[in-house]
Amino acid sequence: MLLRxxxxxxxxxxxxxxxxxxxxxxSPGVQDVIDVLVWLAxxxxxxxxLLVPLVLAVGLLIARLTRLSGALRGGLLCAACLTLVALPxxxxxxxxxxxxVLPLDYVTNWVATIAVTVVxxxxxxxxxxxxxxxxxxxxxxxxxTR
Length: 146
Prior knowledge:
Blueprint: H1 2-26, H2 30-65, H3 69-91, H4 106-141
Helix pairs in contact: 2-3, 3-4
């Protein structure tokens, strides 16, 4: 209960700091505030209306199709989060008036992080499969107490 309350309080403080930074650094006009509120409403609608149902449906499908559902769902969730974070930079990549705005090759970096995610997910799935197989083997070898 204390941990949940602390996390909630930290989130509220961080939101307040973000609002303070927005007001202090940009001196927003009414239209700026409206634009931010529209963006926030769209982000919430996309998250709750599209992303969450999609993640739940894919997780359910994976759970029904394979025994390695935990590792696969974790890997897919990680890949989806990485993609959501990288997507704006990948879409805005190109020549700009200021070359320091987006200086990296974001597509290559995204591919590299997804590749690492795939390798780690495969490793976790393999270790889980080996442990399950070893536990079954030991269970079969144990003398029956029935």
